[in-house]
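Researcher: Re-running this chain for the archive, since the previous output was lost when a drive failed. Same request as before.
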Amino acid sequence: MKGARFTRPRFHTLASALLLILMLVGSTLGADNAATRVAFLQIHVDSSGVRLESAKVVKGAFKQPRGESNRSGILYEVVLDDGSVLTSGIVADPLIKRFEYEDPDQPSRLRSKVVALDEAVFTVRIPYNDAVDQVVFSRVALSTDVSRKQVVRRLGAIRLDDLHGDK
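Model: Regenerated C-alpha cells:
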C-alpha cells in the first residue's frame, strides 16, 4: 500500500462526525456562557454597618480577584445556600480617603492627608447564580503593634433572595 486514500463515503462520514462533534462542543460552551452571570452590588457603609443600595445582574464572566490577604479594607465573602464560601475579595475602605497634593511651601515635595468619612457607597462585582445566598462584609485592618496581624470586625450581611428573579 503506497498511501492511504479516503474513499468518498468514508471521508463524508468522518467529516459529518467531526462537524457534529464541533456543533455539540460549541453549543455546550455557549450554554455555559449564557448561564454565567455577574452581580454588581452598590453597598452603603457607615458606622452602623452595610446595606444594599442597588443591584444589577448581567450576563458575563467573573474574573477571580488576585491574592489580597495582606491588605486592609472591606472584606466581602459570597456565601452559598449550603454555607460554603464561593469567593471572597477585599476592596479599599471607602470610609478612608487619602489625598496627595504638592506642598505650597516646598513645590517639589508631595504631602498627603487622610480623611475619614462618616458614610460612603461602593460597588462590588461578584459571580452570581441561584445558589448564592448572601454576601458577608467585614472590616479588615492591620494591628498597630509589631505583629501587624489582621483585625477583622464584621459589618453585616446582605441576603440576595430578591435577585433570584433577575435571570
